[in-house]
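Forgive a beginner's question, but might I ask you for the amino acids of a protein and the tokens describing how it folds?
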Amino acid sequence: MRTFRRLVAACTAALMVSSCSILQNVASSATSVGTNTGSAIAGLYQILKATGTIDLSNLTNLINLGKILTGANALAGATTAYADDFATALVKGSSNLVNSNNIAKVLTGLESLANMDTSALATASSFAATGSDPQVSMSSKGISDSMNAITKLLAGLE
């Protein structure tokens, strides 16, 4: 009986350690994705503010768009804890461009993106990330819809 109790205690301890590790990895993922998304939002916001448009032939812009899409998709169906960690990191990653005054609009914008077909823009971003020429055209329906949603999200920062 004593051996059985020790075995149960050891198994319980091992389970608790692995559970804590899993939770830490989830929090780490939320922080990483939130920070990257915030940084990408800040980068694109500055470009949009300076030029009035987001140049889709610029590879850095496409990579930033891909980071925003990654953030949007990560939030879809996320737990409250993940979303909270993501939001905190989003603010930090954007250097407080995203803040308590506009975070609700930004999260709503990200939710909208998660509910759209952004596959054309995601593909273009993947090509850009590998250094390939994505040959993106705003005339593509999927790209123009995605860009309109992202532009609306960025406009919510003002």
Q: What stands out?
A: The chain has one domain: 27-155. The first helix runs from residue 2 to 51. The mean pLDDT is 78.
